[in-house]
Design brief:
The chain has 165 residues and is of the alpha+beta class. A two-stranded antiparallel sheet has the order 1-2. The chain is elongated and about 60 Å long. It starts with 20 loop residues before the first helix and ends with a strand.
């Protein structure tokens, strides 16, 4: 059964060909699902979802601080799939120095600071996920992919599909 419209549908693996397009076709035509995507899921947004949200970060909405710059640099590094040592590039450091914090040039964070910030955000996201899963009353399918950097820093990618019982 689909979460938004309560339509019953057999699992794709019930069929010998195991078609993967059934859910995609349904979601393209499901009014309640499209409406929920338009207004957003809201209440169960994790800190990682909020971390990558495109909230208003103009200087008039909140003051520019060292922590804000560090957070935005981390978002940029992750979303652009750049190695953390790219923050130590001379031209990147100069670009960051054009930003003023308390009328002084900002300093680009080091790769160690970026890594520590990522670890902190990951721990927070892990706790949020535990809370969400503990409160969940529906079926959940997980797809997990793990990898590590050359220096053995581990990463895990998780995709989750939820189905109401």
């Amino acid at each position: 059964m689909y979460l938004h419209c309560r339509k019953m549908q057999a699992h794709p693996w019930k069929y010998e060909s195991k078609p993967s397009g059934i859910l995609k076709r349904h979601l393209n035509n499901c009014g309640p699902y499209r409406e929920s995507q338009r207004i957003g899921s809201g209440s169960q947004a994790s800190s990682m979802t909020q971390f990558f949200s495109s909230g208003d970060t103009t200087p008039t909405s909140r003051p520019i601080t060292k922590a804000l710059i560090d957070q935005q640099v981390l978002k940029f590094m992750i979303s652009a799939n750049l190695p953390f040592n790219a923050v130590e590039n001379e031209n990147f450091r100069e670009l960051i120095s054009w930003i003023k914090v308390n009328n002084r040039p900002a300093q680009a964070p080091s790769r160690k600071i970026i890594r520590a910030r990522l670890s902190t955000e990951a721990k927070s996201a892990k706790e949020d996920l535990k809370t969400i899963l503990a409160a969940n009353k529906s079926k959940i399918s997980l797809a997990i992919d793990c990898w590590s950097t050359r220096t053995n820093f581990g990463f895990m990618g998780i995709a989750v599909a939820r189905q109401e019982c």
